[in-house]
Amino acid sequence: MRQVWVDGKPSQQIPVDDRGLLLADGAFETFLVREGTVMYVDEHRERLARSLGVLQFSTPQQFAQGMIAESAALIAAVGTTGSARLTVTRGSGPRGYSPPVDAVPRSLLSFDPLFTPNSAPLTLGWSTVKWPDQPLLSGAKLLARTENILAALDARQQQVDDVVMCTQDDRVCSVARGNLFLRVADTLLTPDLSTAGIAGTRRALILNRFAKVAGYHVTTASVARAQLLAADEIFVCNALWGVRPVARIGQQQWSDFAASRALAPLLDPEAAVTW
Amino acid sequence: MRQVWVDGKPSQQIPVDDRGLLLADGAFETFLVREGTVMYVDEHRERLARSLGVLQFSTPQQFAQGMIAESAALIAAVGTTGSARLTVTRGSGPRGYSPPVDAVPRSLLSFDPLFTPNSAPLTLGWSTVKWPDQPLLSGAKLLARTENILAALDARQQQVDDVVMCTQDDRVCSVARGNLFLRVADTLLTPDLSTAGIAGTRRALILNRFAKVAGYHVTTASVARAQLLAADEIFVCNALWGVRPVARIGQQQWSDFAASRALAPLLDPEAAVTW
């Protein structure tokens, strides 16, 4: 059963004047939890600090550090395996866009026991929803997630697991629920996120650490639709899925999951890999 | 003192699994209330329906109609003058971007007694925050308001009343808190909102009704920064301010407020106009 804490105390409600609710004034992180341990806590702390910095919270590093540490402690006390989400809002405020000068950020942590995560290869469609072109916010994981919601509806309508989302100028950016990697021979490419998208913690780990360990060159790139379809292998990554290969986009199919097989256990030794 | 209702009942709290809070999955309207009457209720209902339609709520027209009617009734029972905000979220849901198939939207209505609204001419700066380029969502008034928040912080830092926000390709779009109109001789222009911005109810009223009554031609246009500064008059409109002229942007000053003077009492006969 889900457990929820608001500012570290069990609660099922938040105040109606919360700026996260009224204006999407906040950010969040989704954690994979293994037996009470938040996986990759440093990467989550760093990205949360970046997101809060984009929103000009007064001391983003301190807020991120304090709230991630508190979350890790609450989750450790539960002690089981599951998924968790930490939401940080600007807290309560009066009417209007302008945040209070003395805003007191609010944390909302929820923990869900994880059912056997489905790691089966993905069937993707192409989303009709494009990312906004917004370099100022790109990479951050903010509460404002309208495009992801609409893309998820798009995936439901197309009866696929997820959809490829492009930028306004029609470059491949991500799927609704994670980042994309392409393998071409021994090189991994992931879309450049300078104008749109969320910079995933697993994306960063593959770029900075695990691609090399698995024996691949890795780089960020501008990726055209045709280039995606011409890749030798495609996989998606996020905190809960880890690495999950793509089996099909439209009529195009893939069955060589070499990079996915190499990376999945590096990211998550407990990952249930069936391919 | 502020009064708040959740789904029509007095409340100060909402559930922690509300998708408006977690993913900005919702929209809102801000009402001017005169002695218990929501001003321009038809325009607000129409825009709310459009916003909920953009979010693919199942029956946006019905939700908007029902929630606006309920809000108007609650506000009528209070019977005083003030401002109100109706927030409509997708309601509660499980983890993830995908809305529940049977989502039950939630309404959150707050009413604040209005202090004497400041209608003094505005001093504006130029925002460093640009609107995202996103034709799909343009015009709607969604909960995802990150750019408006950052622009409001920008205005605070520049010590101005508000800031002019441009599009990614540097065309004038709006201010953080409302829409912009330029007057050039007998013609009013307001920026085209095909790629960014919120289509204000007062903007629509001026375009469709009041400009003509006041004796002006009116049109939407692509507006360059230099064109804004070269205008004979500039004014801002929103639900609470009505029409408010611009006295200064940087070193440029204006003192001819003819169109503002003609339009302000048409939009709001009770408007406190001192210029």
Radius of gyration of chain A: 19 Å
**Structurally, how many domains make up the residues of chain A?**
2
Q: Hey, roughly how much beta strand do the residues of chain A contain?
A: 25-35%
What is the name of the CATH topology of the largest domain in chain A? D-amino Acid Aminotransferase, Chain A, domain 2
The count of β-strands of chain A is 17
CATH level-two architecture of the largest domain in chain A:
Alpha-Beta Barrel
Order of helices and strands of chain A: EEEHEEHHEEEHEEEEHEEHEEEH
CATH superfamily placement of the largest domain in chain A: D-amino Acid Aminotransferase, subunit A, domain 2
**Oligomer classification:** homodimer
Which residues of chain A form runs of ≥5 with pLDDT under 50?
none
| Helix count from the secondary structure assignment of chain A | 7
Question: Based on CA inertia axes, which overall geometry of chain A fits?
Answer: globular
Chains forming the largest contact: A-B, 55 and 55 residues
Give the N-terminus to C-terminus distance of chain A in angstroms: 30 Å
Secondary-structure-based class of chain A equals alpha+beta
Instruction: Estimate percent helicity of chain A.
Output: 25-40%
Q: Regarding CATH, which class of the largest domain in chain A? A: Alpha Beta
EC number (chains A, B): 4.1.3.38
GO biological process, one term (chains A, B): 4-aminobenzoate biosynthetic process
Pfam families (chains A, B): Aminotran_4
Organism (chains A, B): Luminiphilus syltensis NOR5-1B
